[in-house]
Amino acid sequence: MKKTGRESTLEKDLKKYMESQGGLFPKSVSPGKKGWPDRNPSHPFCGPFYMEVKRPGEKSTPLQMEVSREMARHGYRVYASVHQFRIGKEIIDDEINCVIPSQRRHHPVQP
Predict the structure, then answer these.
(1) CA atoms of 74 and 54, how far apart (whole Å)
(2) DSSP secondary structure, 83-95, as one string
(3) In CATH, what number is assigned to the domain containing residue 92?
(4) Which of 19, 22, 46, 68 could covalently link to 95 via disulfide, CB atoms 3.0 to 4.6 Å apart?
(5) 54-100 pLDDT, tens per residue?
(6) Domain that holds residue 98
(7) Is residue 63 included in any domain, yes or no?
């Protein structure tokens, strides 16, 4: 799997990895709601969560962070600015393995 490049390449690599672990990595769409995270991974062991995948070195926009915090206030787990395959893989592994929040390598956005 290629570990660097465009956002679409990173999404494809993370999708392939999540599916190899028995999960799903669908696009997330919310018509009329700008700033919504672009992926909604899910696995039988952890359920759904959200991930904002970015081009390497890029960060989530202020609007995306605002929406992520709003979602966190409603109980969603949202990971912002996932810009490296390694980070996305670690998030997926921690979620699937039900790692307790204080021991996760990467933490979801807080409200």
Answers:
(1) 23
(2) -SHHHHHHHHHHH
(3) 3.40.1350.10
(4) 46
(5) 998 899 999 999 999 999 999 999 999 999 999 999 999 999 999 99
(6) 1-27+35-58+77-111
(7) no
